[in-house]
Specification:
Strand content: under 5%
Distance between the termini: 84 Å
Radius of gyration: 32 Å
Membrane topology: Multi-pass membrane protein
Oligomer: single chain
Structural class: mainly alpha
InterPro entries: VCCN1/2, YneE/VCCN1/2-like
Pfam family, one: Bestrophin_2
Keywords: Ion transport, Membrane, Transmembrane, Transmembrane helix, Transport
GO molecular function, one term: voltage-gated chloride channel activity
Length: about 400
């Protein structure tokens, strides 16, 4: 007699979804054999030394953690001494340090043009300033569009994170709400685990969108080691945590209406993932960035020729000031185009964690106080037959 066929799992669709989200990624294929790289050119290495240094300083400052502002920070921010403070800290600004390669190159080119015109006055390079007067509005519009589009992306990322944090706080509040006394002890371990999953989601999303983040260290104190191993092995860690939250809600002893409301709160998590990945993966159309960069470079390469008749050697500091000002505006637009390193995400995640801890402490205090108050008034006849307070003192309390 043939052996009976094995039974299929009770819910193959859910099991398949869980495995698909949390399996470790396939190992990458071995890299193809490459030939020996050519020896670097000493001249190119010398010319790229300054840009490499500026990029290293900028990327190092990008990874700095941003703090949240408090009253003292706002007081210093609007202080009348801010202009002097900003001027004295110019050399430590990553925006200014990142402008060292283009500004120094354009200033050196202006000095070369001035030297050439001084040594060979018969063949000096001069031109009319009329083209500059006609193209100046176009350059201004390009810079305005660049900065406005970058700030719109920054604001969109900030709003997406505020929705994620608000949804996490609201869902955590519904989880920490005290259930019926008969179910409180039974569901308490699952509720604590679910609360940790909710707190872990913003941290995992932060590590998902910011490079060089140590997700293992950030989640170490929030999750159990077995849960952490599953999340670290998954391809998409924020979605894996959402799966933990969803299945925990299914296991929790809740009425269907409340469970549906709590599951609907997960939509803000999915929306936050979509918005963040879209902002990371899709920059401002590269045509605008390239056009603005080329326009700025060509503008300042021809600026010494245009200004020579009127300014002579003043074209060198004039080129430096113009390049430093306009390239600085463009650099700020490029920096805030990726909004998440500019946001204080670590501080926001910590603020959410501290806020939920404080909310739980307040709930316990209020619950203890109400229970004690209810017991102290349990033996008293607080109301008359008609339902109104039975004494003037209690009437005064209600008023």
């Amino acid at each position: 007699m043939a052996a009976p066929a094995p039974k299929s799992p009770a819910n193959p669709i859910r099991r398949h979804l869980h495995v698909a989200r949390c399996l470790p990624p396939d190992p990458p294929p071995p890299p193809p054999p490459t030939s020996k790289p050519p020896s670097p050119n000493p001249l190119l290495s010398l010319l790229s030394a300054v840009p490499d240094w500026a990029d290293a300083v900028q990327e190092g400052r990008v990874r700095d953690r941003r703090p949240l502002y408090d009253h003292a920070s706002w007081r210093e921010h609007r202080s009348s001494r801010r202009h002097l403070r900003h001027l004295l800290t110019s050399l430590s600004s990553r925006v200014i340090l990142s402008l060292a390669p283009p500004v120094s190159a354009l200033t050196a080119f202006a000095a070369a043009i001035a030297t050439y015109n001084t040594l060979l006055p018969a063949y000096e390079l001069t031109a009319s300033s009329l083209p500059y007067q006609l193209t100046a509005p176009a350059l201004a519009l390009l810079l305005v569009f660049r900065t406005e589009a970058s700030y719109a992306r920054f604001d969109e990322g900030r709003k997406a994170w505020m929705r994620v944090l608000a949804g996490a706080a609201e869902l955590a509040g519904m989880v920490t709400h005290r259930p019926h006394a008969s179910r409180q002890a039974e569901d308490e371990p699952l509720r604590r685990a679910l609360l940790n999953y909710i707190l872990a989601f913003p941290v995992a999303l932060k590590c998902h969108i910011i490079s060089d983040s140590d997700v293992k260290m950030d989640l170490q104190g929030l999750l159990a080691q077995d849960d952490l191993n599953v999340i670290l092995a998954s391809k998409h860690r924020p979605r894996c945590i959402i799966e933990f939250i969803s299945q925990s809600l299914q296991m929790l002893d809740l009425d269907e209406q409340k469970r549906s409301i709590m599951e609907s709160k997960l939509s803000c998590f999915l929306e936050g993932i979509g918005v963040c990945e879209q902002l990371i993966g899709i920059p401002i159309p590269l045509s605008y960035t390239r056009l603005t960069s080329r326009f700025l470079v060509l503008w300042h390469l021809t600026l010494p020729v245009i200004l020579w008749d009127e300014c002579k050697w003043i074209v060198v500091p004039a080129t430096f000031i113009s390049a430093a000002s306009l390239f600085c505006i463009e650099e700020v637009g490029v920096l805030i185009e990726e909004p998440f390193p500019m946001l204080a995400l670590d501080a926001l995640c910590k603020q959410l964690h501290d806020g939920i801890k404080d909310m739980m402490a307040v709930q316990n205090s209020v619950h203890t106080r109400l229970v004690a108050q209810n017991k102290s008034h349990g033996g008293r006849n607080r109301s008359a037959e008609n339902g109104w307070p039975g004494s003037k003192r209690e009437d005064a309390k209600i008023d």
